[in-house]
Specification:
The structure holds 2 protein chains of 2 kinds.
Chain A lengths: L1 H13 L10 E2 L6 E13 L2 E17 L2 E18 L2 E5 L5 E10 L4 E9 L22 H4 L4 E12 L3 E9 L13 E12 L3 E12 L8 E12 L3 E12 L4 E14 L4 E12 L4 E12 L5 E10 L6 E9 L1
Antiparallel strand pairs in A: 1-2, 2-3, 2-18, 3-4, 4-5, 4-6, 6-7, 7-8, 8-9, 9-10, 10-11, 11-12, 12-13, 13-14, 14-15, 15-16, 16-17, 17-18
Chain B lengths: L1 H14 L6 E7 L7 H8 L5 E2 L2 E2 L1 E5 L4 H11 L3 H14 L5 E3 L2 H10 L3 E6 L7 E8 L1
Parallel strand pairs in B: 4-5, 4-6
Antiparallel strand pairs in B: 1-6, 1-7, 2-3
Classes of the chains: A mainly beta, B alpha/beta.
Chain lengths: ~325, ~140
């Protein structure tokens, strides 16, 4: 019921005056801003065509005194029409998932405590996982197989700023996921850390952690992971890379390696070229692959993105072309 | 005659002092000192609380020359990169700094509101304000 109320407030807020795309809308004098996003995409892979309304999300956030909060609910794969060999298959997932719901308490200028469901602060990609905020329609495979994308529990953060920025996060989950149908791993334990150091143009991140899938019965259900990430970002271009691995608790490699390196070249504020190289080996999925991606993003304004990309896979039957339109409200 | 005129113009130009402006980041007298990196973090809303007090950064209007100087020298991000930064921050639940139209408004707000931080041209500073950081273009 509360999800419907949030959705209604959002729709009403869009009728309010002084609204600008991509900035959200303040709700009267309340400490509440509303926003949302959606994406439509098309994929051609061999003789298969897929049309999809993928993301349809609403979010609300605000702050009061030392507290701030975020709530985000999303329809994922809301409508999917897959056409192959003249046969059309339509699937609809019309359940509203809880993507993020958390409260932050800012203890002082260095320490913050978070409670709720939040994006695991691992690497760069996982913190901005929505279509409109990235430059390709697709996500790197490594961001989906090494670690749980979401954590439900506590997060303690330390940050300090001088010539550079140093941030350290500790993540703790010892309970069920708030919405485990909306996570890449169904987990009830997750412990991890994040260390970030950055200066004006570059930053580096180191992540590690341990998680258990629900009712873990075998050692295969208990996994460790490590990730190393880096980003160099200047006016004209950006280079970003993440690489990691995952082991089961018996130290057999479930994912011996998975990573990507991506380069962006900003022809102008509106036109962006992108190239990405990926490689991974997953012993659970029994898959080993290299992927090369070239793409182009057109942003008439930043919160609106039209994107095209072509993926060349070492498993050539997975070569594909993707197009998407996405908007942030 | 032309040669003499050219030499005269050159001499005048060389003898003129370089035209430069000084700018300052200001707060009220009770505010603690900040490094340049901390000021950048405050205007990117990464640092929001100091000494149990919420920090309130104040921007000038989007095309104001003092703001452009501040973003170039202290934040070190162009206007277009900042636009994409704040769009991403909207998804992460953070708002950009509030905006004021004039340096007089910034001064008045900083004097009145604890935790407020703004930037103005140095020749507009008075004794009631604390200078946190100073630079020249």
């Amino acid at each position: 019921m509360y999800k419907i109320v949030v959705l209604l407030i959002f729709v009403i807020s869009l009728y309010a005056s002084e609204y600008r795309l991509g900035e959200g809308k303040k709700i009267d004098s309340l400490p509440l801003y509303m926003g949302g996003y959606f994406s439509l995409d098309y994929r051609n892979m061999g003789n298969e065509n897929r049309y999809r309304i993928d993301d349809l999300a609403v979010m609300g956030y605000g702050n009061y005194d030392k507290f701030s909060y975020m709530a985000e609910f999303e329809f994922k794969s809301f409508y999917v029409d897959t056409r192959k060999d003249g046969v059309s298959t339509v699937t609809k997932d019309q359940s509203l998932h809880t993507e993020r719901v958390y409260v932050d308490y800012h203890i002082n200028e260095n320490y913050t405590l978070r409670a709720g469901k939040y994006s695991s602060p691992i690497g760069y990609w996982n913190l901005l996982p929505v279509n409109v905020l990235r430059q390709t329609t697709s996500n790197p495979v490594s961001t989906n197989i090494i670690f749980p994308k979401f954590t439900t529990g506590l997060q303690a953060s330390y940050s300090t700023f001088n010539d550079g920025e140093l941030s350290i996060d500790v993540i703790l989950q010892h309970n069920r996921d708030l919405d485990d149908s909306y996570n890449n791993y169904k987990i009830d334990n997750h412990y991890g850390f994040n260390v970030l150091y950055g200066q004006d143009d570059y930053s580096l991140k180191l992540n590690g952690g341990y998680f258990e899938t629900i009712n873990a019965s075998s050692e295969e259900d208990k996994r460790y992971y490590f990730m190393l990430s880096g980003k160099y970002d200047v006016e004209k271009y950006q280079i970003q890379a993440e690489i990691g691995f995952q082991n089961s608790s018996k130290f057999s490699a479930t994912t011996p390696y998975a990573g990507y390196i991506q380069g962006l070249y900003r022809l102008s504020e509106q036109h962006i070229l992108v190239a990405r190289a990926e490689a991974y080996k997953d012993n659970v999925l029994k898959k080993k692959e290299q992927i090369g991606i070239v793409g182009y993003a057109y942003r008439p304004i930043y919160p609106v993105a039209f994107k095209a990309e072509y993926q060349l896979h070492s498993l050539s039957e997975e070569n594909q072309m993707l197009f998407s339109v996405s908007v942030l409200f | 005659m032309k040669k003499i005129l050219r030499q005269l113009i050159l001499m005048v130009l060389v003898s003129l002092p370089a035209i430069s402006s000084d700018y300052v980041v200001i707060a009220n007298k009770e505010m603690k000192d900040f490094s340049k990196g901390q000021i950048k973090a405050i205007f990117l809303k990464k640092l929001t609380l100091v000494n149990d007090m919420n920090i309130v950064p104040i921007n000038m209007g989007a095309t104001n020359p003092v703001r452009l100087e501040f973003e170039k020298h202290v934040v070190k991000m162009s206007f277009s990169r900042l636009k994409s930064y704040w769009t991403k921050q909207h998804y992460l639940g953070h708002r950009p700094p509030i905006t004021m139209k004039s340096q007089e408004s910034v001064k008045a707000f900083v004097k009145k509101v604890d935790g407020a931080i703004g930037y103005i041209e140095a020749n507009n500073v008075d004794d009631s304000l604390k200078i946190l950081y100073k630079w020249s273009d």
